Amino acid sequence: MFNITINLDIKGSTREFAYNHLKEQIINWDLKPGTKISEKEVAQILEVSRTPVREAFLQLAQEELLTIVPQRGTIVSKIDLSLVEEGRFVREHIEKAVVREVCATINENQLFQLETNLTMQELCLEKGSHNRLFQLDEEFHQLLFEICNKKRTWNNVRRMNSHFDRLRMLRLVENHDFEVVLDQHKEIFKSISEKNPDKAESIMEKHMKLVFVEWKELKAKNPEYFN
């Protein structure tokens, strides 16, 4: 048996709704690695037909978030550290290039958008809203891509970072330590404001390596969640 927190605010196709909802549940650890789920139960909970749920399962399996075993069912995949590192590697190198371009192209309105995001991060940190902090973290980085007209690149990077995101969320759940992440976001913002691409790139590299430095401790505490 499994639990799914539902929010029946369907936008886009039913398949997209089922996919996005399940992926969010997996990333946020509402559906933990090793949890067995079924098309029938998910369809009943989400109040949709089984066809879009089946399509969502297949898409999540392609992203290696679900493992579909014939005759046995579907389970939430365990974290694969090789996939974490591959996703982190791609994101690090692309975001270093992106932040350099942002330093050269950003305008005052875009600076204000980044600053507003950081203010919201600080507020959520004070209130202990960890899921919202994770969302604001993602929005901060997405803004960087959008500032230099790389939204499609962002979407492609996101698709291969699911295991990386799960490890990041586990770190946040385990340590409740977002201050170091926020401090690095502030440093990135300051470097962009000063139009210092070398410093911005250096901080971004450090930022993208942060969670992977702690993976051994996270795995030692939660061995059942890892391959």
List the helices and strands and how they pair.
Layout: H1 14-27, E1 36-37, H2 39-46, H3 50-62, E2 66-69, E3 73-76, H4 81-105, H5 108-127, H6 130-147, H7 151-159, H8 162-175, H9 179-193, H10 197-213, H11 215-221
Antiparallel strand pairs: 1-3, 2-3
Helical segment count? 11
Structural class: mainly alpha
Report the end-to-end length measured between terminal Cα atoms. Answer: 22 Å
The percent range for helix content is over 70%
Question: Unreliable stretches, pLDDT < 50, 5 or more residues?
Answer: 5-11
- Number of E-state strands: 3
Overall body shape: globular
Beta percentage is under 5%
- What sequence of helices (H) and strands (E) makes up the elements? HEHHEEHHHHHHHH
What is the chains' assembly state? single chain
Strand order within the widest beta sheet: 1-3-2
- Mind describing the biggest β-sheet? 3 strands, antiparallel
